[in-house]
UniProtKB/TrEMBL annotation:
It comes from the Eukaryota. This is Ras-domain-containing protein.
């Protein structure tokens, strides 16, 4: 029987780097030129099928990038299994903000969290301020995954989420029945095996 696993994924990054557009492209394969800024956070889900028959379901928290919402971020990345930290390749300041988020995750998130650094808006390469070499070097130094994407064209979007899915552990712990209130258990770190009886009922979107 194929294995089904569930993981919590959080998106972080400065406002207007394209986090919501990235998720919309991944979840619905759509792009909207005039998306309004996210207020607080948005919740979406999407599944990825891996070559070995495993199905990975992402519970995605798309956080707001505005400074006034920054204090809410720990509520969303706490116990997250993976994080996508997004910057805009046409804005060098957005990479510096991404570095700040990564430092915060390294200090406060679960030690086993999988972090991907994502340079969005690759369709605007003519206006590039952040070189691939600079971002990739930083990612390698910090042990991060790295990729460039275009939410507008769709280039690289499914690839980065699939790569994250492949890097996550494919075995669920015995404690995976733990309910949403038990945030400190290994279930929050290693995912929930959806094939386990009752496992689906014990995992709720509010487990943040």
């Amino acid at each position: 029987m194929s294995k089904q696993l569930q993981f919590k994924l959080v998106l972080l990054g400065e406002s207007a780097v394209g986090k919501s557009s990235l998720v919309l492209r991944f979840v619905k394969d759509q792009f909207d030129d005039y998306r309004e800024s996210t207020i607080g956070a948005a919740f979406l889900t999407q599944t990825v099928a891996l070559d070995d028959g495993t199905t990975v379901k992402f519970e995605i928290w798309d956080t707001a990038g505005q400074e006034r919402y920054k204090s809410l971020a720990p509520m969303y990345y706490r116990n997250a299994n993976c994080a996508v930290v997004v910057y805009d390749i046409t804005q060098s300041a957005s990479l510096e903000k991404a570095r700040n988020w990564i430092r915060e995750l390294q200090r406060q998130a679960d030690p086993s969290i999988v972090i991907a650094l994502c340079g969005n808006k690759s369709d605007l390469a003519a206006r590039r301020q952040v070189t691939q070499e600079e971002a990739q070097k930083y990612a390698e130094e910090e042990g991060l995954m790295w990729a460039e994407t275009s939410a507008k064209s769709g280039e690289g979007v499914s690839d980065i989420f699939t790569a994250i899915a492949k890097k996550l552990p494919t075995t669920a712990p015995p404690a995976s029945r733990a309910g949403p209130g038990r945030a400190g258990t290994s279930a929050g770190r290693t995912g929930v095996d959806l094939n386990r009886q009752g496992a689906g009922a014990s995992t709720e979107p509010c487990n943040c």
